[in-house]
Amino acid sequence: MRNLTPKVFTGTLASALVLAAASASAQDRSDWPSNFTVGTASQGGTYFVYGSGWANLIADELDISGGGEVTGGPTQNLALVHGGDVAFGLTTMGPAADAVKGESPLAPGVPMDNVCALFPMYETPFSITALASSGIESISDIPDGARIGFGPAASTSDTYFPAMLEELGVNFERRNGGWGDLGGQLQDGLLDVIAFAAGIPIPAVSQLEVQTDVNIIEFTEEEQAQILEAFPVSEFSIPASTYETLEEDARAVSMWNFAIAGCDLPEDFVYEVTKVTMENNDKMRNVHRSAEHSIPENLKHNKVLPFHPGAVRWYEENGYEIDESLKK
């Protein structure tokens, strides 16, 4: 009988510890939202697929109701997160920089200080294409008054690429349209250049180079440095394997996409969301292949938004440093 007492005590203690842990877990969730929404963009685009899939992953892993919502994209998502209309959203560093400074077109003069960064998603490269027959082989070759297609109106490309080219002294006529349509216009001689901000390989360019000779125009080192100084973009290199036309990697810039959260969301909740996302990259890649870049090593590409305290806790616990200026 004397041997039973320690066993019974140990079992009772173990049960008590399990119950205590369960109780603590329940307490940890007491201030969690009952559900959440991720602001994405229009249906069918990368943002919608990525954001909806990520929302489903979080909902499944944390046993909480959540999903993606169709929105107007990066700029509107910042406003929705800031106002608490959605818990999470997807955006790019350009609109984020404008929002922080109170220069968002949706809320002029209102600094959006309730928007925090969560994690890096992927980068959107900026690239330039012209027909080889045009003789345009560099940005400095683009003639005054050139007709340049910048993609859909109000897109990331249309918002930032014109300003970048103006920064580099290019004078042009601005044209808008879908990438496929603009590719056709370039081939028909109705455009001189197309300035893309889109994932590579760009189908319109791949199709063009099958049908005619094209030039993929890279930035010089000086041009790249000038744009890096003036805009919230990062260095990028278009791999030579991307297009048949390229014989070597082409220098460019890119704008990073980041997931964002309301800064007032509970720290423990955001910690768990970050943990699930950063520790399940295989599942994230199943959501969208671009998520191969959704890894902590790419935190450095956010120099604009403060990171949510919950996200900071996970990163620092796992050996990733966050600059003090980017802590909320």
From TrEMBL:
Keywords: Signal. InterPro entries: TRAP_TAXI (IPR011852). It holds the Pfam family NMT1_3. CDD domains: PBP2_TAXI_TRAP_like_2. Residues 1-26 form the signal peptide. Transmembrane segments: none annotated. PANTHER family: SLL1037 PROTEIN. This is TAXI family TRAP transporter solute-binding subunit. It comes from Billgrantia pellis.
